[in-house]
Specification:
One of its GO terms (molecular function) is phosphoglycerate mutase activity. This protein has seven helices and five strands; from the N terminus they run αβαβαααβααββ. With 177 residues, the chain is an alpha/beta fold. The relative contact order is 0.17.
């Protein structure tokens, strides 16, 4: 959408204003995240950045809820049930993933593919989706399932983490403002 394009460009400008540059990028297998990354890289002047795309960073699969707006889903299954599927940690919608399932898919990829480069000093940019990023944030910030469900993630708002040698968070800067 036009709003998504503005948010992606704004995110890139926020990173540039912090004088950040990157050695490598990771994104999902979905066009939306790839387009977001492309727009951000244009803003920071790094359009040739080596980028890895992987479905492990894809958005949570909403299964039978995919393609439905919230009102249609509520009519079909009821407001309470749809809220449980959308906001619980471990209850997936029919044919879909819970946040716990998304974490089980995203975390191994982070540990095996992203984290080793970060620990070697690679400045790494990850452009993904609300729930796959939520899974990574849960691990980085050591949040419980209850805490991560309450954590709001603004779209187009980069969060910059610096890690210690043991992979714990040394500092965090939220560029939402």
């Amino acid at each position: 959408t036009e709003q998504g394009i503005r948010e992606a460009r704004d995110a890139g400008r926020k990173l540039k204003a912090q004088d950040l540059s990157f050695d490598v990028a990771f994104t999902s297998d979905l066009t939306r995240a790839q387009h977001t990354l492309k727009l951000m890289l244009e803003e920071i002047g790094q359009t040739g950045l080596p980028t890895t795309k992987n479905l492990a960073l894809n958005e949570r699969d909403y299964g039978d809820l995919s393609g439905l707006n919230k009102d249609d889903a509520r009519k079909k299954w009821g407001e309470d049930q749809v809220l449980i599927w959308r906001r619980s940690y471990d209850v997936p919608p029919p044919g879909g993933e819970s946040l716990k399932d998304t974490l089980a898919r995203t975390l191994p990829y982070y540990v095996q593919e992203i984290l080793p480069g970060v620990l070697r000093g690679q400045r790494t940019l990850v452009a993904a989706h609300g729930n796959s990023l939520r899974a990574l944030i849960m691990v980085l910030e050591k949040l419980s399932p209850e805490q991560i469900l309450k954590r709001e993630l603004a779209t187009g708002a980069p969060v910059v983490y610096r890690l210690n040698a043991d992979s714990t968070v040394a500092s965090k800067v939220d560029l939402a403002g």
